[in-house]
């Protein structure tokens, strides 16, 4: 099997220090819808909310038929390679329009992948992403303070809401690798099914 072209992406959650970030290898043939799935798996989000990408003056997501002139192109119809061909090297990804989690995605390198490796693949990262529906940046800051301090007036309520302790430094790398491997396996199975259908 020949090596496919891979983009190494650096994904960082904006406006949070210390930084919450992931580095992943993604095939350039991936659609932006697949890239959304990859970001959700890599960061640890749970895919509960609306999302979109911005690249230059264009937006990509799930168009709403009720707003056909809203300027949102269908993410499933656009490949990462098409953006790279236009010279795009940085994208903005927004998840959950209420909490407004903005991620900057930087293309660090493009090159051949390993022939026997399935992609996407987790490379590196630091710090756990915020819980869903925590209330955006202000809510997350309060959540961190409360979870770190058993005497905080919100500690017990938030611990019960979250379902246990929260370690901001533990990204649960094993879970992240498995989540991305599941996407890679589905993609690989789809490619094999496609090749078999072409051979018939």
From TrEMBL:
Entries under Pfam families matching the protein: PRiA4_ORF3 (PF07929)
Describe the location of the Plasmid pRiA4b Orf3-like domain by residue ranges. Answer: 6-172
The record, for SUPFAM superfamilies, names: MM3350-like (SSF159941)
Superkingdom, natural source: Bacteria
**Name recorded for this polypeptide:** Plasmid pRiA4b ORF-3 family protein
């Amino acid at each position: 099997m020949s090596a496919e072209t891979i983009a190494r992406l650096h994904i960082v959650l904006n406006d949070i220090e210390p930084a919450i970030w992931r580095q992943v290898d993604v095939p350039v043939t991936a659609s932006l819808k697949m890239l959304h799935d990859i970001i959700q798996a890599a960061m640890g989000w749970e895919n509960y909310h609306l999302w979109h990408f911005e690249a230059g003056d264009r937006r990509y997501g799930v168009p709403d038929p009720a707003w056909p002139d809203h300027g949102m192109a269908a993410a499933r119809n656009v490949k990462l390679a098409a953006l790279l061909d236009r010279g795009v090297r940085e994208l903005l990804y927004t998840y959950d329009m209420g909490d407004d989690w903005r991620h900057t995605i930087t293309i660090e390198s493009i090159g051949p992948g390993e022939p026997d490796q399935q992609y996407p693949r987790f490379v590196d990262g630091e710090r756990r992403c915020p819980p869903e529906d925590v209330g955006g940046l202000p809510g997350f800051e309060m959540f961190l303070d409360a979870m770190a301090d058993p005497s905080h007036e919100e500690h017990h309520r938030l611990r019960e809401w979250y379902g246990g302790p929260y370690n901001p430094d533990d990204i649960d790398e094993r879970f992240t690798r498995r989540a991305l491997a599941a996407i890679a396996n589905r993609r690989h199975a789809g490619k094999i099914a496609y090749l078999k259908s072409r051979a018939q």
